[in-house]
Amino acid sequence: MFPKVPKFAKTYADLWTPMTKALEDFKLEVENRKFPDLQHSYTMKEEEFSRAFPSVPMTDPFKIDQVEDFKLKEEKLETNSSEKFNPAIHVKEKKKSIAIIGGGAMGSLIGAKLASDSRNSVWMLSNWKDHVTSIKSRGGLTLTNFDGSQIFSPVNATSEISEILQVNGAVDLAMVMVKSPMTRDAAVKASKLIHPSHGMVLTLQNGLGNREIIGDVLGDVGKVIQGVTSQAGNILGQGMVTHTGEGYTTLAFSENNRAIVEELAAILNAGGIFTEISPDLEGMQWGKLIVNSAINPISAILGVKNGELAENSSTRELLGQTVKEGASVAQAKGVSLPFDVFQKVLDVARATAQNSSSMLKDVRRGTLTEVDAINGSIVREGDRLGVNVNLNRMLMGLINSSYQASQATSLIRW
Fold first, then answer.
1. I want to staple 241 with a disulfide (CB 3.0 to 4.6 A). Which of 108, 268, 315, 389 is the partner?
2. Which residue among the candidates 288, 324, 344, 361 is catalytic per the annotation?
3. Are 250 and 280 in contact (CB under 8 A)?
């Protein structure tokens, strides 16, 4: 049991290391409110409950709002003690279970933010094995907030759907946080994770058409909420993420799902992700698309952080010409944009000044980008409507050429 064993003593087992680790793990679980939890409590079967408390109706013990529905047939229930039995104090609020599909910068940022609220149980599903292993071994993610402060967020992580279902069960909400080319695969995973009766999927992805792809896989586009965000994050290392840019997040609602969208917005706001709702799905999507169409490819081609684009006169001119094309396409489609796109692109670039765009990161890694889902959407609609989109076409061609060149280089090395 002792860290140092006297020379004259024989060592049979090293108990110090496992006992120290066990105590440290226990301390972390208590601090992160993982212990005690529902799994550490006692529950009763319905027939057992009815025999023990015949005057109390059996309800779902995990829904706090049902406490108000308790109506005792008798005014007093005597227990072995002198105190009266009050079922309300024995009811624990069920956590909102959320699965983040995608363990990149944005998935990690959103997951860490949401998990910092003890009312949420957050799982990250990612193919990045080293990232998952680090999060598992440490019991969560280290989040560096935008103001420089650090917190440890108790995110669960896995690469297996079966682990989430076995430990947590079906989730209330799946958030798709992958690049657009991987949307269909992520949608299949979401379909296996969400609760069949009330589970929803939220996408905050770039580009157009992701909601429709997810809805096609689920067989019900009504289960899919579309949102846009200009929050920005960066992976500092395995198990570590930093918030590099404050931005707006907007969720689209219809009259059929307004209550659900308001609830999701409240969850995001409680996690420190400033969120509003809007009935204008198309205007919201095209506004974000046009901003992305300028910042992402231009920063990737020039190899600079977002903020530099807004502070240089030449790049400001290029940003302006790019968003002007996108705005012309939106106007031809009859889409009313929610803001002045040139001012918005400058605001976003400055708000995320220290962030390297996801497209720049992809170009540097030599991985597939989202340029076809972003600039490509503008080019396809522009061609269909007879609007000049040559600048967007050129930016898309340059980014795709960069990717093809990187693949050819890697083949030569091989």
1. 108
2. 288
3. no
CB atoms within 10 A of CB 29: 15
Nearest-angstrom CA–CA distance, 229 and 36: 35
How many C-beta atoms lie closer than 10 Å to residue 80's C-beta?
Answer: 5
The model's confidence at residue 364, banded by pLDDT at 50, 70 and 90, is very high
288 catalytic per annotation: yes
Rounded to 5 degrees, what are φ and ψ at 78?
-85, 135
Question: Hey, CA dihedral for 381, 231, 229, 317, is it positive or negative?
Answer: negative
Q: What share of the chain is helix, strand, coil (3-state, %, to 5)?
A: 50, 15, 35
Using the predicted structure, report yes or no on whether residue 220 has a pLDDT greater than 50: yes
- What tokens were used for 368? 């597939």
Task: Tell me how far CA of residue 145 lies from CA of 67, 125, 138, 269, in angstroms.
Answer: 37, 22, 19, 15
Given a cut of 60, whether residue 223 has pLDDT beyond it is yes
Annotate 369-394 with DSSP letters as a single string: -SHHHHHHHHHHHHHHHT---HHHHH
Distance, in Å, from the CA atom of 357 to the CA atom of 403, rounded to the nearest integer, reads 16
Please report the pLDDT score of residue 4 as a whole number.
59
Q: Which residues contact 294 (CB under 8 A, 6 or more apart)?
A: 309, 318, 319, 322, 323, 326, 345
210-245: b (≥16 Cβ within 10 Å) or e = bbebbbebbeeeebbbbbbbbbbbbbeebbbbbbbb
Amino acid making up residue 213:
I
CA 281 to CA 134: how far, in whole Å?
38
Inter-residue contact 154 to 32 (CB < 8 Å): yes
**Residue 139 DSSP one-character state:** T
